[in-house]
Amino acid sequence: MRSLKRVNKVKPLALLCCALLAACAPMKDDTSTVKPISQQEIVLPKDIKLTSQQWPDATWWKHYNDPQLNALIDRALKQSPSIAVAHARVAQARSDVALIESGTQLKVNAMAQINEAHVSSNGYLGPFANDVPQVSALSGPWYTEGIVGLGATLDIDLWGEHRDRLDAVMGVENAHKLEEKAVELEISADVAQLYYGIQTTDQVMQRLGTLKQSETFVLNSHEARAARGLESHSDAEMAKAMLLTIEQQLSKAKQQRVAFRESLRALIGGGELAEITPMPLPVAQTQLPSSLNYQLLARRPDLQAAHWYVQSSMKQIDAAKAAFYPKFDIKAFFGFDALHLDDLFDHSSQQTNIVPGLYLPIFSGGQLEANLDKTRHQRDMLISQYNQAVLTAVKDVVVTGSALQSLQEEQTLQNEKVSSAAAGMNNAKARYQRGLISEAMANEAQRQWLTAQIQQIEMQGQLVSKDIVLNKALGGGKI
């Protein structure tokens, strides 16, 4: 008999152990081979000579020493709709963190309930369903039950599932904060590009205006000579064609300036945009760091954001694994429960419940396995996106640095070309004043000089543009 009792005591324990083992069933192994990119792959090619030990400052645009540009970027960083969207994403992520963080906190609810019920004659309260109650304290078949009290629930995070989910959403929050920095960098670079696009266009238009005056004089001279029969009308037609070409260039430049201005106005949040005072184009000074490696990853906010998304996905995998294990919680109630409202607040109507609960995910229909596979695939996708973002960032730095280096070499040659054209123009003017050449030849020398100057200004604008792009590619000094 004792042996039978001992067996009866062992059976429930054995069943519990079997249930726990079933709940902790083995999971599929992670067979993914996707790995984050190594730092050895973040290198500069040896043919890049434009290197130094410096990285851009956080406010890199202030090196251009242009108060107008500083004011425009400050305004854009405060009023741009893109910044407002980035702020909202950060605030939303912060709310998600608070929501997940509340999962393991004690929850207490006040409750009040009135239950008006007609008791079934065939139910478990059948004896109380007659018109004449069998218990003097009850009066059927209608009963009014009242419940008032406090209910509490506490989830016990045994396996760290909630903690992992919290770390995951905190990773997303960090990613959104860095994306906010990436938006700021994007906006500051775009404002600088548009601003110097306007400055470059203004200088080109000024030279084109001077060139138009010169070509107008040439055209008038040819027409006057043709009218007196001193030359054919073909020379006048050629001069007219040249003048029309210049007018086309002026019209295109004016349209481009309007496009630059309106894009800039939209970027800074609309409203009035003060007239931009002409300023000299700055000299491009940004150089490539002699070594990129981890510093590029740290300074580029978009790469840091991608890294945090990967970290978040790792924590989601841990949370998905923890879902395979048993869950434990405690529910409690303290209050009053009475079958008659008149008795609801009597001392004898007090009720206390404490209900520890253990939940074993024995059969989930493949839901847990599918969720784990989903998080692993998501991690692989995010790692691949991160790797591609790193490779693209390195490419942007190298390509922009190489273009800047090439443009600087071209600028040196263009400066020499402008100097030679200026010398030729001065020589032609002197010879014209002494009557050695015609005025048309002197104007042709001036036209060549103005054309070389326009090319020089456009090249300087390209240099500034590439300098801005390089600052952006290097992360704008964010670290």
From TrEMBL:
Keyword entries, A-Z: Lipoprotein, Membrane, Palmitate, Signal, Transmembrane, Transmembrane beta strand
Alphabetized InterPro entries for the sequence: MdtP/NodT-like (IPR010131), OMP_efflux (IPR003423)
UniProt-listed PROSITE patterns: PROKAR_LIPOPROTEIN
Secretion signal span: 1-27
Keyword Lipoprotein: yes
Domain of life of the source: Bacteria
Main location, first listed in the record: membrane
Keyword Signal: yes
Membrane topology: Lipid-anchor
Compartmental location: Cell outer membrane
Function in brief: Could be involved in resistance to puromycin, acriflavine and tetraphenylarsonium chloride.
Family statement: Belongs to the outer membrane factor (OMF) (TC 1.B.17) family.
Name of the protein described by the UniProt record: Efflux transporter outer membrane subunit
